[in-house]
Each structure stands twice: as C-alpha cells, then as structure tokens.
Amino acid sequence: MSDVTASDHEQGRWAGRGLLPPAGPQRTLAVATFVTMLGSGVYMVAAALYFTRSVGLSVAQVGLGMGVAGLAGLLAGVPVGHLADRRGPREVYLATQLVQAAAMAALVLVHTFWQFTAVLCAVELSRAAGAAARGPLVRGFGGEELPRFRAYLRSVANLAISLGAVGAGVAVQLDSRAAYLALVLGNAVSFVACAAITRTLPPLAPVPVPAAAGRWLALRDPAFIAVTALDSLLGVQGAVLMYALPLWIVGHTDAPRGLVGVTALLNTAMVVVLQVRVGRRVDSGAAAARAMRRCGWAFLAGMAVIALAAGLPGWAATALVLVGVAGHTVGELWHAAGSLELRFRLAPRHAQGQYTGVSGLGTGLAGAAAPTVLGLLCVSWGAPGWLLMGAVFVLAGLAVPAAVRWAERTRPIGTRPA
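User: That's the sequence. What structure does it adopt?
Assistant: Structure tokens below.
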C-alpha cells in the first residue's frame, strides 16, 4: 500500500504551484490574515476623513493624535511578544484581536481630541501587541515551508488591503457620518472574525527556555539590534510609494493625477503575483543578506527614474513613473523576503515573539520618521533628494551582509535556523 496520503498530495500542490497552503493551520491563519487586513484596508483609507469630517477634529489634531498613538504602540511589542512566548501565541494573539476590536469600536464614541488620542493609543497598543504575538504563530505553523508561507501571507495581506481600500472608496464617495461609522465598525468586526478564526487553530505549546537563557534576550542582542536598525532604515522605502510619490506626481510632474491610483495597483499586483516566487528562494541567512543588498540598488534605480519625470510632458512622465514604480517594487519584494527571513532565522525559537516585538519597534520608529525625511528630501528638495535617499538605501543594503554574519556568529543559546 502506498504511504502517500491526501495531506501529502496537498503539500505537493502547495510546493508545486504556490497557490494555496495545505488545508489545516496554515490555511486557517491565511484566512484570518485576509479577514483582518481587509478591515485594515477599509480603515486606512477612511480614518483621516472620519476624524476630520465626522468627528470634527482638525487636520493638525488628527496628525498629532496619530503620532502620539504610534509612539505609544511601540511600547507593547516586546512585553506582549515575551508573554506569547511563555503563555502560548494563539491565546495571546486571540486576546489582542478582541482588545483591538473593542478599541476600534470605541472610536465611534469619541467627540474630543483627548478622547480620540486615548482610544487611538489603545488601538495602536493592541495592534503592536498582536503583531508581536503573531510571529510565533507564523513560525510554529510554517514548519519546513516557512519562507514560502511568510511570502504567501504577505501576498494575502496586500490583496486584502487593496480590496478593503476599494470598498472604502464607496463610503468616501457618500461622505456621510453613517458611511464612515460603518467603515470603522466594519473594521472592528473584522478583528472579532479574526479572533473567531484564530480560535479554531490548535494551541502551540511554549518552546522550553534553555537554562542559561536570561530574560529580555532580544534587548541584549546587539547583533540582532544592528540587523533590525538596517532593516528598519531600508523599511523607510514603504513610505516612498505611499507618501512621497503621490505628492511628487501631483506637485512636480505633468502626469495625470489618476496615475496615483494606477501606481498603487501596479505595486499591489506585483506583490500579490511575485512575492511567493521571490520569498521561497530566500531561505538562509546568506540568501537574505544578498536580497537585502540587492534591494538597495533596486530602490536607487527606481527612485532615480521617478526623479527624472519632473519637467517632462505628461505621457513621458507617466511612463517613467510606472517604470520607476516597477523597479522600486522589485526592491520591495527582495526587502520583504530578506527581512522576514532574518526576523525568524536570527530569533531563538523560545523567544520568537520577543524578537518580533523588537523588529516591530524598529519598524515603528522608521515609520514615524519616514514622512518627515521623505518630505524634506524627495518632495521639497526634488531630484537630488530622491537620489540621496536612494543612495542611503544602497549603503544600508551593503551593510546588511556584515551585520548578518556577526549575528550568525553570536546567536544566543537556543537559536536554530528557521
């Protein structure tokens, strides 16, 4: 009798085609990811409009409140990640989704700036906590297919965010309080649904801690912190297409304004189609370091082409921007694959949540600084600023291999390759 089972056939289809993970925990986590990111896509598009047009806050108040909440969220990742490592990631992640649902629903009750800031801090704290707790879940259920599974989850998240943004556009067009409230409450419901789906996952037992391992291991790991710092610097690229490019297209080129939406679709389509193909090849520290080095050059090339669009006729500017976005997205694919591999490979199994929290801390700081940095360099300075920022990405990418070699030489007790 053959030893091949139906599960083996499912695994073969996953490995051969990369279409869907096998039935079981991987697919369940993918569905949970899709649901929660669909709600996030809705909220991201409509949040600022809801707070200004429905709640009645000023643009300055919304910006300040979001900034304070973003900084507050940085405090949650490491301790909650540590809690997930020690108490089990499924239970902790489920709890963070329920807290986030309650905090998101509470946003419909805010009427003052201080209420808005306090509730948004709760939203951001639970969001960062959830991201840290999710790391051990992904690692635990990813198994031998972890590089491919991580890439698949990123593709799913991008697709869901895009679909959510399309749905939010309908409410934005209606521009009524009822429509905005429906979007905010819809996002809250998505967290409840994610928690319900997560509850069907089998529990993951905490990984035993080696006797010689101390507490707060990630915060005492200088090599990992160095890798995180370089990764976070490269992560500023995420705001190039979301923040700097729309301002560049509208304010510095003769390309049609509708190009902003087209570039977002191009970026999303490339990520959804190509991320798994790129990610499955980045399955070692050396491969991750090479991917991070290459991404810096891709960012420089893409940003240089985008910078050339200023002053050209509309059709030429449009063509250059599209080429530049495609090049930049190639760098994004490499960066995501390398970054995810290092976040898991360099983390001890018993401290994955804690290390994910440290990575999130770096990403959050970079995200907070990105609008100001890109606004000053790319938008205000113009073409020289685009080239300078691209050069910074190149230098950061070139420094990653040395940092990775240092990290691999100095892994704490209990580390095993993911």
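The chain has two domains: 22-198, 218-409.
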